Amino acid sequence: MKAECTVRLAAPLALHRAALQQTAELAGEAASLAARKAHRVYASRITTASTAP
C-alpha cells in the first residue's frame, strides 16, 4: 500500500496565482468532474485571499 502525506507550506500569493494559471488547461473539458471541482475550489480560495483586507 502506498502511503500519502500532505505538506503545507506558506507561499506567496503570486506563486499560487501562477500555479492556478498554469493548471487551467488541465481543468478543461477533458478533465474529470473531480479535477474541475478541485480547480474551481482552489481558484475560489485564491480569489478570496486576494480580496481579503
**Strand and helix order:** HH
Distance between the termini: 44 Å
The Cα radius of gyration reads: 13 Å
Q: What helical percentage do the residues reach?
A: 40-55%
Q: What structural class do helix, strand and pairing data support?
A: mainly alpha
What overall geometry do the principal axes of the alpha carbons give?
globular
Mean pLDDT: 85
Question: How many strands appear in the DSSP assignment?
Answer: 0
Model regions low in confidence, pLDDT < 50 over at least 5 residues: none
Number of helices: 2
Amount of beta strand: under 5%
Largest sheet: none
Tags for this entry?
53 residues, mainly alpha, 55% helix, globular
Structural notes for this entry:
- The protein has 53 residues and is mostly helical.
- Helices cover 55% and strands 0% of the residues.
- It is built from two helices and no strands.
- It is globular and about 40 Å long.
- The mean pLDDT is 85.
Topology:
Layout: H1 13-22, H2 33-51
Compact description:
It is built from two helices and no strands. It has 53 residues and is an all-alpha fold.
